[in-house]
Amino acid sequence: MELFLASLTPVQMAVAFAVTLFAGFVKGAIGFAMPMLMLSAFGSFLPAELALALLILPTLLTNFAQAFRQGVAAAWGSIVEYRWFIAMVVIFIPITAGFVRVIPQSLMFVLLGLPIVAFAGVQLMGISLALPIHHRRRAEVILGIIGGCYGGISGIWGPPLLIYLLSIHAPKTEAVRVQGVVFLLGAVILTVSHLGSGVLNAQTAPASAVLVIPAAIGMWLGFRAHDRLDAQRFRRWTLVLLLLTGLNLVRRGIGL
Question: Which residue spans traverse the membrane (predicted)?
Answer without folding.
Answer: 12-30, 37-62, 82-100, 107-129, 141-166, 178-200, 206-225, 237-254
